[in-house]
Here is the input.
Amino acid sequence: MSVSCTENDTDKYDAGDANLRVLSMYALRDAECGTTHTLSGFILGKATRTSVDLCISQLYMLTCTEWQVSDPAPAACKAIGISFH
Here is the structure.
């Protein structure tokens, strides 16, 4: 009897797509809040859609006051490697 596990890539973004999605929200927040942040930590591999979407949702929910700190990346973003400065 053989048991094998397969990883389903349909529930993942590749690194380029995941980073683009996060960068788009980050640029929107900078524009809305009149700030300028630099992305200093990137997603280096495939990331689950759930994790990336949660990061984007948490970025969207930040107030401009919360966004104006040096690294406004919420916990969901830091968990997948995202950081700002």
